[in-house]
Design a protein that fits this description.
- It is a single chain.
- With 303 residues, the chain is mostly helical.
- Helix content is 76%, strand content 0%.
- It is built from ten helices and no strands.
- Helix 1 runs parallel beside helix 3, helix 2 runs antiparallel to helix 9 (247-269) and helix 3 (121-145) packs antiparallel against helix 10.
- It is elongated and about 125 Å long.
- Mean pLDDT is 81; it is low at 271-276.
């Protein structure tokens, strides 16, 4: 039996189908818009990440180029300064300093050899670069003492902007006081500066490597007559804490400190100039050598 549909019922059915069709189209369009919106967000995010990656790569490349340029400059400076020392006739008052510089250079060559033979990682390689700068600084000040002078930095300026204040505000104040005393018109400039600088170096080591901690970490550490760990073991403690406890690097740091302390003895002798007064290039050389050594030691000592 065929069901008869009235015109009104037919119109209602048509309207229902039209409503369902419009609803389906609207749902499809909404889904399409949502998909396109999510796709656009994903593409935008990917593009942003790609831009960020490109910027990071560009920054890394710039830093790598700058780093390589500094390394080449230090290599050239070290070679140049050592060559000048080897060509010079050794004066009696500076022969000990020259021998110390050449010993430090030999210690650096062992560090460089070990680092090239093994992967010391970014932190270790940074310490190698700083060690090279130390060797070059030592050679430079030795050449100043033998009369081969070059222009130095401003006496009272300093690159140690935060190295010392991180460990101790007192050390930072002592360093700035030492710089203030380093004036060519001050007959005791070198002696005052060397006394303060030596105290700073000693304090950096003692603050960063407390006796009790060194004894606890290095069971076989050697003790002084007063029962304190020797400096070499404190250096080992600091390098182990940075996971860079390489024997050649440990030896270099110890030799570097000996080199600076030996330099203090030369300046404290007051054998240059009237009444022990040193000229500006010599004081600049002393300041640059000590500043570099403190920066190097502070980097190692930093937790």
């Amino acid at each position: 039996m065929v069901r008869r549909v009235t015109p009104a019922q037919f119109q209602a059915i048509v309207r229902q189908e039209e409503t369902r069709r419009r609803r389906a189209i609207n749902e499809y369009n909404a889904a399409a818009r949502k998909y396109n919106s999510e796709l656009k967000r994903a593409i935008d995010s990917r593009n942003a990440e790609a831009r960020k990656a490109r910027l990071a790569i560009d920054r890394y490349n710039r830093e790598a180029r700058a780093h390589n340029a500094r390394v080449r400059a230090d290599q050239q400076r070290l070679a140049r300064e050592i060559s000048r020392i080897e060509r010079q006739v050794q004066a009696s008052q500076t022969s000990a300093v020259q021998r110390s510089t050449l010993s430090l250079h030999d210690a650096y060559k062992l560090v460089d050899l070990d680092a090239n033979a093994d992967d010391w990682g970014p932190e270790g390689n940074r310490l190698v670069d700083l060690a090279e700068t130390e060797a070059a600084n030592s050679a430079a000040v030795t050449n100043v003492l033998t009369g081969d002078r070059v222009a130095g930095s401003e006496i009272e300026s300093t690159e140690l902007t935060d190295h010392l204040s991180i460990s101790s505000e007192d050390l930072d104040s002592r360093w700035r006081g030492a710089l203030f005393s380093l004036n060519p018109q001050n007959p005791d400039a070198a002696r005052h500066f060397c006394t303060s600088a030596r105290e700073i170096i000693t304090r950096i080591i003692d603050i960063s490597a407390p006796d009790d901690q060194v004894k606890a970490e290095i069971a076989e550490c050697t003790l002084t007559a007063t029962g304190r760990p020797v400096r070499r073991d404190k250096i080992r403690f600091l390098l182990e804490r940075r996971a860079n406890d390489h024997e050649s690097l440990e030896q270099f740091v110890d030799t570097d400190i000996d080199d600076v302390v030996g330099l203090f003895r030369v300046f404290n002798d007051g054998t240059h100039g009237d009444a022990g007064r040193f000229d500006l290039p010599t004081l600049q050389g002393l300041k640059g050598r000590v500043e570099g050594a403190i920066r190097f030691l502070s980097t190692i000592a930093r937790p």
